[in-house]
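Tokens as discussed.
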């Protein structure tokens, strides 16, 4: 496969980010942009000369010119696009979480197994050099015993993302990392949530995970962070992993490029997620997209989260949400 032809389905907040990044990833061409909203799809296709605009994902499945589909629809609408695409012989990237129910996730896994096509869940932190280094360096430090991962996002963003429980939509990044680092099965999941904004789902979420090998982890996510200007974004995210031989830590808002202006004061600009350097997406997002393309071109072996791992992280997230709901109901 010389040039990988991709279709992006879902041209909302995050689909736009894919479309921007894909402009500068070599070996790939956007051949179709699909969104239920025709105007949105057409606007998003600008900047991709020759890209077809579609409003129905079935058109993408039927198009023999599409090799791979990137699914960037809302969390509960991943299966409706991904399963038919896999069955039509397309490789697929699905934004996280793989699905919001086990039934959907298993249907997608079945379609991937039957078609033999790559099904990648977009856990991009596995392609962030710092988080990937934690995994590698843990090998010399012994098992992870005690893990704390946090993710606090802007209040205003919760207007959109309250549509899905934050353990499943947001903390899922950390759940995937924690399972990857600890490498053992979760035996008990305790969720504690608060809804202070009155939106559809709780905006403060603490999850305590107990593992078969004795490890314990906390995943914490909230939407109580003040609003950020997104071109100056500092994610308040990080992880601390304690092992017998030492401690490994990643803190997104204290590392990176420092900028001080009279307008905004001191800022630390995250360079690890989306940074574009010399016109190319160079953060974890770019690395993940390049890896996907290289896999399809047969240049490397797949190193992202497997569908089985994505399903396990989703199960844990659902267990945390269910535990919190049961506690609140009692
Ligand atoms: N990895 C990250 O850091 C990150 C950040 C934000 C969002 N996301 C994920 O990206 C996905 C999309 O989120 P978003 O913020 O872009 O949401 P969004 O609501 O802004 O966009 C979703 C788009 O999908 C379209 N759509 C819905 N169903 C469709 C269908 N069947 N066919 C075609 N188009 C359809 C909608 O019209 C909308 O334009 C979600 O899974 C979300 O969790 C990931």
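Sequence:
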């Amino acid at each position: 496969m010389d040039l990988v032809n991709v279709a992006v389905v879902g041209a909302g907040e995050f689909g736009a980010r894919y479309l921007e990044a894909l402009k500068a990833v070599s070996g790939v061409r956007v051949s179709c942009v699909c969104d239920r909203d025709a105007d949105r799809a057409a606007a998003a296709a600008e900047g991709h000369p020759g890209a077809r605009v579609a409003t129905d994902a079935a058109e993408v499945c039927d198009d023999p010119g599409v090799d791979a589909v990137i699914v960037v629809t809302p969390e509960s609408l991943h299966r409706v696009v991904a399963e038919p695409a896999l069955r039509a012989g397309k490789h697929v990237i699905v934004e996280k979480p793989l699905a919001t129910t086990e039934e959907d996730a298993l249907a997608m896994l079945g379609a991937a197994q039957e078609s033999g096509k790559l099904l990648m869940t977009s856990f991009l932190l596995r392609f962030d050099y710092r988080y990937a280094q934690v995994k590698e360096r843990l090998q010399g430090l012994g098992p992870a015993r005690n893990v704390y991962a946090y993710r606090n996002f802007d209040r205003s963003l919760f207007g959109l993302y309250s549509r899905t429980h934050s353990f499943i939509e947001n903390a899922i990044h950390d759940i995937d990392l924690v399972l990857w680092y600890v490498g053992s099965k979760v035996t008990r999941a305790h969720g504690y949530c608060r809804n202070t904004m009155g939106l559809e789902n709780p905006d403060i979420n603490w999850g305590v995970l107990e593992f078969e090998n004795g490890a314990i982890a906390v995943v914490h996510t909230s939407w109580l962070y003040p609003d950020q200007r997104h071109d100056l974004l500092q994610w308040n995210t990080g992880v601390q992993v304690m092992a017998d031989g030492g401690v490994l830590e990643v803190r997104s808002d204290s590392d990176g490029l420092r900028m001080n202006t009279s307008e905004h004061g001191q800022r630390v600009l995250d360079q690890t997620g989306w940074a574009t350097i010399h016109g190319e997406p160079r953060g974890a997002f770019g690395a993940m997209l390049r890896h996907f393309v290289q896999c399809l071109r047969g240049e490397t072996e797949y190193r992202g989260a497997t569908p089985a791992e994505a399903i396990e992280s989703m199960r844990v997230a659902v267990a945390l949400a269910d535990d919190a709901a049961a506690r609140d109901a009692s």
